[in-house]
TrEMBL record:
Domain of life: Bacteria
Bilayer-crossing regions: none
Name of this chain's protein: Copper oxidase
Organism whose genome encodes this protein: Paracoccus hibiscisoli
A GO term for molecular function: copper ion binding
Extent of the signal sequence: 1-26
Protein keywords: Metal-binding, Oxidoreductase, Signal
Domain Plastocyanin-like: residue ranges: 54-166, 383-502
Length: 503
């Protein structure tokens, strides 16, 4: 697709906003935050996830059809221990193939749960996972080619926590008391309040975004916390939306971990941006006992505020991140003027503070040296590769080719450090994920990045040339290769995905 044609399509789509859905119901915030049940996964049998159908009332009186792992929507929190084998069985009780991908986990390709490992209705997949990963917050979800977007959207996802018995965790870690999982998603609802997933042109182009924010499956919930340090494990489990989290009173907090595990030291900040599938652990001080809300800037479909195609300084129209902007302001694509999105609220209970009372100055992070790269690879994310998807819409791809399941795109040698350069063929935001390892971000948009502050990653925002340094220690065969892809789920379903072996 030529650039001019692409810009014309984007502008034309403004006549049919994707998110401005009138409704006859009101989504009331303030229900208690559900705390996911914990499933401790060890070497024994009996750890079973059943992929099942369910129903849920996200809003008063309206019932939505959902999917989940062993519950009506989402799944339990899976807790693994480093150095201990994890045996788990996943039973497919649905009517189409699924997988269980252990997103971010360092396991061989035949255990990774990618598209090659899909299993059908009535079948069970029972992997034995050798847990060789630093303490971290990870993600699990179905990963069937062409169906990842709708399956995750319906609820086939959950959080993983890996504990490392070799380190003394100096942070709050009493689960459900001062250590809380926050699975953040946006969902779209029709006039009656039923959750819907129906792709229009803008949804295919930018990824599907919803008009309501859920945390752990509840719209804008409330959490009561102790008056002290509280650890929040935040997972952006949305299909495409970017969040820029902050508190309404402007309070600072400290990031202590990213995708791959703990940072070298706590990092003070007042806002935190997470793209799809990114995770971050933050520690927040609530000793002042003041109620507060967690909100996000309403970042639009191309991932930035006031970004995208900008015009001159006169009275012309400019394409902003959410719609058409003229010299008198912005006409938002979702019918508002950029008001912050409320994520959830906090109040402080009467219970005495639990756990540590102050943050350490350093953290027990696992930071092996990668050394200099012996090889460089280039990846271009393509918004159009020719042809049409089944069901409508353009195919997407990487390096000029859409994903094909029986094609190996790259061959990587185990133990060798490589530098990957990722870019896009159009002025679009993407979110690049690599299976089987964690990596260091070296540069973005030609500017060096302090990788010690960002930490170990398995997802990185691509909004201009981006370089990552990585090494693979787990093997992947031609039968069960690793994947690299855009983690905007509608993009990967459209073919923006490749696969590689590690030998």
């Amino acid at each position: 697709m030529r650039r001019r044609k692409f810009l014309s399509l984007a502008a034309a789509s403004l006549a049919t906003p994707a998110l401005n859905i009138s409704r006859a119901w009101a989504a009331e915030p303030g229900a208690p935050l559900p705390i996911p049940e914990v499933m401790e996964i060890g070497p024994g049998a009996g750890n079973t996830l059943d992929a099942i159908r369910g129903t849920r009332e996200f809003t008063g009186g309206a019932t939505s059809e959902t999917w989940g792992y062993s519950q009506d929507y989402l799944g339990p929190l899976l807790r693994f221990r480093r150095g201990r084998t994890a045996n788990i069985s996943v039973m497919n009780r649905l009517d189409e193939p699924i997988t269980a991908h252990w997103h971010g986990m360092h396991v061989p390709g035949y255990l990774d749960g990618g598209p090659q490992l899909a299993f059908g209705p009535g079948e069970t997949w029972a992997p034995e996972l050798p847990v060789d990963h630093p303490a971290a917050t990870l993600f699990y979800h179905s990963h069937v080619h062409g169906r990842t977007g709708p399956q995750v959207y319906r609820g086939l996802a959950g959080m993983i926590v890996i504990d490392d018995p070799e380190i003394d965790d100096p942070l709050p870690h009493d689960y459900g008391v001062n250590d809380f999982p926050l699975i953040v998603q946006d969902r779209r609802f029709d006039r009656s309040g039923r959750m819907i997933y129906s792709l229009g042109m803008m949804d295919r182009m930018h990824g599907f975004q919803g008009d309501q924010i859920l945390v752990n499956g509840v719209i804008r919930p409330k959490l009561t916390v102790p008056a002290g340090l509280v650890r929040l494990r935040i997972l952006n489990a949305s299909n495409a939306r970017v969040y820029d989290f902050r508190f309404t009173d402007g309070r600072q907090f400290h990031q202590v971990a990213s995708d791959g595990g703990l940072l070298a030291r706590p990092l003070a900040m007042a806002s935190l941006q997470l793209d799809g599938a990114e995770r971050a652990e933050i520690v927040v001080e609530f000793s002042d006992r003041s109620p507060v809300s967690l909100v996000s800037r309403d970042i639009g479909m191309n991932g930035v505020m006031n970004g995208g195609m900008m015009g001159d300084r006169g009275g012309s129209m400019m394409m902003g991140d959410r719609g058409m902007m003229g010299d008198r302001g912005m006409m938002g694509m979702d019918g508002n003027s950029g008001a912050p999105l409320e994520i959830m609220s906090f109040d402080v209970g009467e219970a005495a503070p639990a756990g540590p009372t102050r943050l350490p100055t350093s953290l027990p992070s696992d930071a092996p040296a990668l050394g200099d790269p012996v090889r460089r690879r280039n990846f271009t994310l393509n918004m159009h590769t020719g042809g049409m998807m089944r069901g409508g819409g353009q195919t997407m791809g990487i390096n000029g080719a859409p994903y094909v399941m029986d094609r190996i795109d790259e061959t990587v040698r185990a133990g060798e450090t490589e530098l990957w350069r990722i870019n896009a063929d159009m002025m679009m935001r993407h979110t690049f994920h690599v299976h089987g390892t964690s990596f260091r971000v070296v540069s973005q948009n030609g500017r060096p990045v302090d990788s010690a502050q960002i930490g170990w990653k398995d997802v990185v925002r691509v909004q201009g040339p981006t370089e990552i340094l990585l090494r693979f220690d787990k093997l992947a065969s031609e039968e069960t290769p690793f994947m690299y892809h855009c983690h905007i789920l509608e993009h990967e379903d459209a073919g923006m995905m490749g696969q590689f072996t590690v030998t």
